[in-house]
Every structure is written in structure tokens, then in C-alpha cells.
Amino acid sequence: MIDPQLLRENPDVVRRSQAARGSSVELVDEAVAADTARRTAIGEFETLRAEQNAFGKTVAQAPKDQKQALVAQAQELAARVKAAQQAAADAETEFTRLAGALQNPVIEGVPAGGEDNFITLREVGEKASFDFEPRDHVELGELLQAIDITRGTKVSGSRFYFLKGIGARLELALMNLALDKALSEGFTPLITPTLVRPEIMAGTGFLGEHSDEIYYLPADDLYLTGTSEVALAGFHSDEILDLEGGPLRYAGWSTCYRREAGSAGKDNRGILRVHQFNKLEMFSYVLPDDAEAEHARLVAYQESMLQACELAYRVIDVAAGDLGSSAARKYDIEAWVPTQGTYRELTSTSNCTTYQARRLDIRYRTESGKTTPVATLNGTLATTRWLVAILETHQRADGSVHVPLALRPYLGGLEVLEPAK
RNA sequence: GGAGACGUCGCAUAGUUCGGCCUAGUGCACCACCCUGCUAAGGUGGAGAGGGGUUUAAACUCCUCCGUGGGUUCAAAUCCCACCGUCUCCGCCA
């Protein structure tokens, strides 16, 4: 939910943002009109209600012989109050519908346009080159007996897989490396529920245009989360936070579930795009003024993870149209995937400013004692998908795979993954 | 799965019998001030959330909020219904 005051006082800012995203600009004017209508309706209702409250006292104190006449009068007033209340509620609903459809105003400098209009901020590391024909991660996964896609499909259908042996260990090593990184940066680890109630899913903004991406369990009216961001954002919902001692930072460890409904036929091979994977997600609750600095911090943590895994990557500033409704700015880090000859997204970090917090009612107290929404940010620290880049980047001619130094302590010192005999 | 109890302004509690005197009382904690040489104790006052109006702002003022949502009524913390949550007992499973 955007700030109603911003909408009222600076509709141009919202208009520009909607335009940059390629979203409806007219919606801004509709929302402004709905805001005016809503406030008028509220005023009318409250005037009548005040009258009714006062009259109620007269009735209560009236002598018995006058009561009947007064009650008759009160009934008539009550009917008018009821109508006005309904009108106010309707106006409120309409405003919420329209304003709720407005996306988070993008931050100054975010490139306008769609998926291809991103700006590359930097490229880091040397892309792997081979004097042999490199194998893709599926082949390597088979050689190492680390990834079993055939059986994953047999058991659960397409886009499912087993991580086996060294594959399972490698994922845990990566996740634990990320967890230690998060701990050293002061994050509190949190293992989160992966089934959430509808209001939490809606509050984080995932039930909008991407609702067909989400698994839903009708028998229980619960949603399977596609990222622990959902639970992490819901963690402090309806709370007033104390940020005096600095931001609240959490690292959420969870399995993630995605239907991948719109991507049939895309990335069918391997474990790049799957229905289920694990992820360690950073989540920060900060003062609105500190959000951009926190965003830079989250990217830095992500880059240090990519570097620890000895991967070549680029950092991109995602274009407005590709942001999702809650994000005011998003940086993706994409690692070079040798057999695809391209960069693929490994992390994503969003600055949701106060947009998500306003929906979930997460506030802090200002110096004057008033409450106002906090800013929320989130970013990936590790996911199963990283195995793709790690295996392909560090492979050798004989099918063995070099283990990045930083991961070795988590694999009992193992330096090389050897093909199974 | 069955039976029952409960949900009140940070915490604890009163109020629900019998709808209007609840503009929700009290204690603790909290904040400011006063008093006592310090501390403790005591005194006075303040203090919840959301939203309108007004305003540069403050002050002021009005409406809403007693788990959530409906309903009955001139009037609901109080009566009715549904849902959510917590606890206890029984059953079942691990």
C-alpha cells in the first residue's frame, strides 16, 4: 500500500512511477478521486453518529412517559446513520481497492522499462574458460551422483529432483556458509513456517498478479511460500518495533515452493528452475531513511558470498517494469553459467521502502511519539540454484569439480568432488 | 476427532448476572514534576491504537476500536451467530 498522503499531495511522483513501470497512470487519478470521496463519506457518517450518540443519552435519561416518542425519533435517526455508515464503508473499500493496486513508487534512478532495460552496475570475476567441452550441471550431477533428476520426476513430476550424496552435502555446505556469513553480520537466524495464512500472503503482496505462481491448499486455506520473505515479513506484522538499537535483521532458512505456472517449456533441463528448493534469505526492518544504505549493505553481503564461491557475476539494477509491486528498487546478481554462455540470476534484493510494512502494519515510534511504517528489505544469501553455477564453473576435464576454498570447511576439508566409480 | 473453559487500553485484573450511570474502573510498570540530605517510600499530573476535521505546526475537536467478522436493538464489552486463537481433559497417532 502506498502512502495515502503522498498520493494526495504529490500525485505526480506516483504518476511518473506508474509510467516508468508501464502501469496504469489513470489509476492514480482514480485513487485520488476515491480518496476525496472516502473522506467526504467519513465526515458525513461521523457527524450523524455524533448526533446519534448525543441523542442516545437523552433517550436513556428521559422519563418513562416521554421515552416512547423519543425512541421513535431515534429509530429514524438510526436508519440514516446506518445508511451513512454503509456509504463510508463502501467508499473506504473502493479507495483501498484502487490505492492498493498502485505499485510502490520507484526510487530515483531506477531504469524505466521492462525486463531488458536493466542497467549493469558492475561485472566481477573472470568468466570460466575451458580447453575441453564443458559439461552442464545435469551431466556433472550424474557423474558425481549428486543430482538425480530421473527419480525426482518419477516421484514428484517434472521440475523435481533428488540431491544425493555429495550433492546433498554441497547444498548444506553452501547454506551453512551463508548462515555463518549472516551470523557474522549480526542477523538472527530463523527457520520459518512454509505454510501461511491468506492475510500474510496478501500482506506481502504475492497474491496480486503472481497468485498463479503459488501453491494453495484449499482444505486448510493455507499457502505454501515461495520464499521465506513471506514469513519473515509476517513475523512482525501488527507490531510496533523498537529500532533504537539499530535495524532488526533476520536470516530465514526455508524450503521454497513455486508452481512455475507461466514458464512451461522454459529452463526445463536441470535444477535451474524447479518447484522446490532451499534458500537462506536476509530480511531487514529499518528506519525509512536508512533503507537505501541497508540495500547497498545487502548487495555487498551477497557479493561476498558469490566471491566466496569463486563465481563470475554481474550486478544489475532491475528496470521499473520488472520490479514487482512491493519493490521500489531491486538489484539482481547473476552468475556466469558456462554452458549457457550467459548470466543467470542467483540473488535478488529488494528495497520495499514502507510499502510492504504499511500493508502488514509494521511501525516504529518517531521522536514525537507518533507511529509510522518502517522500511523492509530482503535479499538472497544462498539457494539451491547456486549449485548450477558452482558445478559448471569449477569443473575439470575428467568430470571432477574443484571445491571453492570457503566451502571446504563445511565438507570436511574436501578439495575436489570426484566422479563416482 | 470429542468435551469444556477462556480472549477487556504494555502486563495483571474489574465490568458481562439484569444492554443505557463504561466517556471502560483499579493495581503494576512507564514519563514529567513535587517532596524528603541520598536511596526507598509518598504526592500531583500525564500517558493506548486507527481515522476524519482544523492547522505551517502545536493545541483543539469528532468518529471508531473490549480476539476478528456479522446480526439483534433507539442504544452492545454486555445478547445471538460464525470464525480465529489460547488452555484443560478424553481419544487417536508419533
UniProtKB/TrEMBL annotation:
<dbReference type="InterPro" id="IPR002314">
    <property type="entry name" value="aa-tRNA-synt_IIb"/>
</dbReference>
<dbReference type="GO" id="GO:0005737">
    <property type="term" value="C:cytoplasm"/>
</dbReference>
<keyword id="KW-0436">Ligase</keyword>
<feature type="binding site">
    <location>
        <position position="380"/>
    </location>
    <ligand>
        <name>L-serine</name>
    </ligand>
</feature>
<feature type="binding site">
    <location>
        <position position="274"/>
    </location>
    <ligand>
        <name>ATP</name>
    </ligand>
</feature>
<keyword id="KW-0175">Coiled coil</keyword>
<keyword id="KW-0963">Cytoplasm</keyword>
<feature type="binding site">
    <location>
        <begin position="345"/>
        <end position="348"/>
    </location>
    <ligand>
        <name>ATP</name>
    </ligand>
</feature>
<dbReference type="Pfam" id="PF00587">
    <property type="entry name" value="tRNA-synt_2b"/>
</dbReference>
<comment type="function">
    <text>Catalyzes the attachment of serine to tRNA(Ser). Is also able to aminoacylate tRNA(Sec) with serine, to form the misacylated tRNA L-seryl-tRNA(Sec), which will be further converted into selenocysteinyl-tRNA(Sec).</text>
</comment>
<feature type="site" description="Important for serine binding">
    <location>
        <position position="380"/>
    </location>
</feature>
<dbReference type="InterPro" id="IPR015866">
    <property type="entry name" value="Ser-tRNA-synth_1_N"/>
</dbReference>
<dbReference type="InterPro" id="IPR006195">
    <property type="entry name" value="aa-tRNA-synth_II"/>
</dbReference>
<dbReference type="Pfam" id="PF02403">
    <property type="entry name" value="Seryl_tRNA_N"/>
</dbReference>
<comment type="pathway">
    <text>Aminoacyl-tRNA biosynthesis; selenocysteinyl-tRNA(Sec) biosynthesis; L-seryl-tRNA(Sec) from L-serine and tRNA(Sec): step 1/1.</text>
</comment>
<feature type="binding site">
    <location>
        <position position="227"/>
    </location>
    <ligand>
        <name>L-serine</name>
    </ligand>
</feature>
<dbReference type="InterPro" id="IPR010978">
    <property type="entry name" value="tRNA-bd_arm"/>
</dbReference>
<keyword id="KW-0030">Aminoacyl-tRNA synthetase</keyword>
<dbReference type="InterPro" id="IPR045864">
    <property type="entry name" value="aa-tRNA-synth_II/BPL/LPL"/>
</dbReference>
<dbReference type="GO" id="GO:0006434">
    <property type="term" value="P:seryl-tRNA aminoacylation"/>
</dbReference>
<dbReference type="InterPro" id="IPR002317">
    <property type="entry name" value="Ser-tRNA-ligase_type_1"/>
</dbReference>
<keyword id="KW-0067">ATP-binding</keyword>
<dbReference type="GO" id="GO:0016260">
    <property type="term" value="P:selenocysteine biosynthetic process"/>
</dbReference>
<feature type="binding site">
    <location>
        <begin position="227"/>
        <end position="229"/>
    </location>
    <ligand>
        <name>L-serine</name>
    </ligand>
</feature>
<feature type="coiled-coil region">
    <location>
        <begin position="67"/>
        <end position="94"/>
    </location>
</feature>
<dbReference type="GO" id="GO:0004828">
    <property type="term" value="F:serine-tRNA ligase activity"/>
</dbReference>
<comment type="similarity">
    <text>Belongs to the class-II aminoacyl-tRNA synthetase family. Type-1 seryl-tRNA synthetase subfamily.</text>
</comment>
<dbReference type="InterPro" id="IPR033729">
    <property type="entry name" value="SerRS_core"/>
</dbReference>
<protein>
    <recommendedName>
        <fullName>Serine--tRNA ligase</fullName>
        <ecNumber>6.1.1.11</ecNumber>
    </recommendedName>
</protein>
<keyword id="KW-0547">Nucleotide-binding</keyword>
<feature type="binding site">
    <location>
        <begin position="258"/>
        <end position="260"/>
    </location>
    <ligand>
        <name>ATP</name>
    </ligand>
</feature>
<dbReference type="GO" id="GO:0005524">
    <property type="term" value="F:ATP binding"/>
</dbReference>
<keyword id="KW-0648">Protein biosynthesis</keyword>
<feature type="binding site">
    <location>
        <position position="281"/>
    </location>
    <ligand>
        <name>L-serine</name>
    </ligand>
</feature>
<comment type="subunit">
    <text>Homodimer. The tRNA molecule binds across the dimer.</text>
</comment>
<dbReference type="InterPro" id="IPR042103">
    <property type="entry name" value="SerRS_1_N_sf"/>
</dbReference>
<feature type="binding site">
    <location>
        <position position="258"/>
    </location>
    <ligand>
        <name>L-serine</name>
    </ligand>
</feature>
<feature type="domain" description="Aminoacyl-transfer RNA synthetases class-II family profile">
    <location>
        <begin position="136"/>
        <end position="404"/>
    </location>
</feature>
<feature type="binding site">
    <location>
        <position position="378"/>
    </location>
    <ligand>
        <name>L-serine</name>
    </ligand>
</feature>
<feature type="binding site">
    <location>
        <begin position="274"/>
        <end position="277"/>
    </location>
    <ligand>
        <name>ATP</name>
    </ligand>
</feature>
